[in-house]
Amino acid sequence: MKRLLISLLVTLLFCSVSGEQLNVFTHAYAQQKPIPPYAKWGEFAMKKTEERYPNAKIIDYLHIGRTPGPQTSTEKFKLWLKDNQKEFGVFINIEFNNETQKVINVTFKETPK
Q: Is Signal there in the keyword field (predicted)?
């Protein structure tokens, strides 16, 4: 009887410990990445590209970088588009006022890839 009671206690103890350990592995923890400073300019670039190429679908984009200046800066992107006949790239530069964030100039340049 004593052995049965000890066996039962050990089993309960093992189950409770295993259950706690199991919970550690069953919960997924998502890491939140900070929003990059160019994110709003990426959305703006996609919007302007959709306006300029309404029949093309944007299939990917790349943030090339920012060229900072004393009064204005330029965000540079490359977008890949696909329309019915071809797939092509578009470089888009967005120049904006550093203080007001107002867009000054937007340029597009197509590239075969």
A: yes
List pLDDT tens digits, range 61-96.
999 999 999 999 999 999 999 998 899 999 999 999
- Give pLDDT, residue 24: 46
Cβ contact 49:41 at 8 Å: no
Q: Do 61 and 42 meet the contact criterion of CB atoms below 8 Å apart? A: yes
Residue 89, exposed/middle/buried by CB under 10 A (0-12, 13-18, 19+)?
Answer: middle
Q: Quote the distance between the C-alpha of residue 45 and its chain's center.
A: 15
Read off the tokens for 93. Answer: 């530069």
The predicted pLDDT at position 113 comes to 72
Q: How far apart are CA 38 and CA 36, in angstroms?
A: 5
The strand pairing partners of 76, in sequence order, are 65, 93
CATH superfamily for 39-111 is Protein of unknown function DUF3889 (3.10.450.390)
Output the pTM of the full model: 0.70
